[in-house]
Predict the 3D structure of the following.
Amino acid sequence: DIQMTQSPSSLSASVGDRVTITCRASQGISNYLAWYQQKPGKVPILLIYGASTLQSGVPSRFSGSGSGTDFTLTIGSLQPEDVAVYYCQKYNTAPRTFGQGTKVEIK
Amino acid sequence: EVQLVESGGGLVQPGGSLRLSCAASGFTFSSYTMTWVRHAPGKGLEYVSSINDRGSSTTYADSVKGRFTISRDNSKNMVYLQMNSLTADDTAVYYCAKTPPLAPFDYWGQGTLVTVSS
């Protein structure tokens, strides 16, 4: 099975900072990569699919890039409401494995 | 409106069994793969199992293989997760998710909590 590795596992940044989270697949997955945001006690929300396509309604400060094995989620200007855990997920084949998550906090 | 409603969670002793159900509505259930995902306290999201539209193909995470069984009843718009030989590591909120082909999950249920403890 393809493994998904995210880094860092957590980060702390100031409001307005640019934040970057990376996700690496153990084998190529083309652009079948999604990013989700999960806040405590809530259902995950889809932010990005197709590695770089912003889901409708998601603020434009979120962006994604990459293809093959290496992917990036960027928050262009961190806001207090962005405090959450972020997950990447491959969805080209089953099992649709998640990365281990990145916890984003405000400094 | 698409709705996914999980049920069947609760407190169970180690070694025990539980069957989760997910009732689907608002879409052509028999046309979609369905997936169970779990979120253990203090841990990340974990893919558990999926079943294709006809129920003829299933996939499991290594952590549950041989203990969990996914099934579906397209006549009732239901997907199930039979969980046996439960351990504390299975304690989590379990979500069912509508799984379009070559696309991310587009709908999630609200989850049902499973607690494995003596």
About this structure: Chain B touches chain A at residues 33, 35, 37, 39, 44-47, 50, 59-62, 95, 99, 102-106, 108-111 (CB under 8 Å). Chain B has a mean pLDDT of 97.
